[in-house]
Design goal:
Number of helices of chain B: 0
Oligomer: heterodimer
Strand content of chain B: over 45%
Largest sheet of chain A: 6 strands, mixed
Number of helices of chain A: 0
Distance between the termini of chain B: 30 Å
Strand content of chain A: over 45%
Shape of chain B: globular
Largest interface: A-B, 23 and 26 residues
Helix content of chain B: under 10%
Distance between the termini of chain A: 41 Å
Helix content of chain A: under 10%
Radius of gyration of chain A: 14 Å
Structural class of chain B: mainly beta
Shape of chain A: globular
Number of strands of chain B: 11
Number of strands of chain A: 12
Structural class of chain A: mainly beta
Largest sheet of chain B: 7 strands, mixed
Chain lengths: 113, 112
């Protein structure tokens, strides 16, 4: 069965601190996709990144970076030099051949000025 | 605008009532997914339709039903509403293969 675990329920940091959000997944499939979404206080789901199971290269996009490690079934997300606007709930998600997207329980990030 | 349209954006109704939530997928997407986000349950997958046929079912209550019409829009019907059904309901659409999902802005349902 597929499962996504985000053990960190809530994280609080002060602006300019780096923060890493953890994501551990379970799947029996060899082909799968991993995602991160941001949900700001306004409620919409904002797509951040997707990664397929065959691409373990880390990715950096501005202040955001992602570390995908199949050996530990993890897909962690790091925000460098956090800003108040980064305050949101962040969801990690997994999809397999059945297509449905399964979400973790989310991590609420609060960045204080 | 993500390309996925959900209506209405907000809905307030009384317990015991029935409501219909509507979703128009992004042009070209054949799959539609429904998710429920309540405070204590996170984002729960409810049901998926692909080109008019039910493809996968998640934690959807028997009081809830959905369908996808020939023009690919989908409706989620919630009946005998309870206070606990108050939630944000998201619709998403995708192309086959699980590579990309586009979410609508959600319908916030409040049951009073």
């Amino acid at each position: 069965a597929q499962k996504v675990t985000q053990a960190q329920t809530e994280i609080s940091v002060v602006e300019k601190e780096d923060v890493t959000l953890d994501c551990v997944y379970e799947t029996r499939d060899t082909t799968y996709y991993l995602f991160w979404y941001k949900q700001p206080p306004s409620g919409e789901l904002v797509f951040l990144i997707r990664r397929n199971s065959f691409d373990e290269q880390n990715e950096i996009s501005g202040r955001y970076s992602w570390n995908f490690q199949k050996s530990t079934s993890s897909f962690n997300f790091t925000i460098t030099a956090s800003q108040v606007v980064d305050s949101a709930v962040y969801f990690c998600a997994l999809s397999e051949a059945t297509d449905k997207l399964i979400f973790g329980t989310g991590t609420r990030l609060q960045v204080f000025p | 605008d993500s390309g996925v349209t959900q209506t209405p954006k907000h809905l307030i109704t009384a317990t015991g009532q029935r409501v219909t939530l509507r979703c128009s997928p992004r042009s070209g997407d054949l799959s539609v997914y429904w998710y429920q986000q309540s405070l204590d349950q996170g984002l729960q997958f409810l049901i998926q339709y692909y080109n008019g046929e039910e493809r996968a079912k998640g934690n959807i209550l028997e009081r809830f039903s959905a369908q996808q019409f020939p023009d690919l829009h989908s409706e989620l019907n919630l009946s005998s509403l309870e206070l606990g059904d108050s939630a944000l309901y998201f619709c998403a659409s995708s192309v086959p293969g699980g590579w990309g999902y586009t979410f609508g802005s959600g319908t916030r349902l409040t049951v009073v």
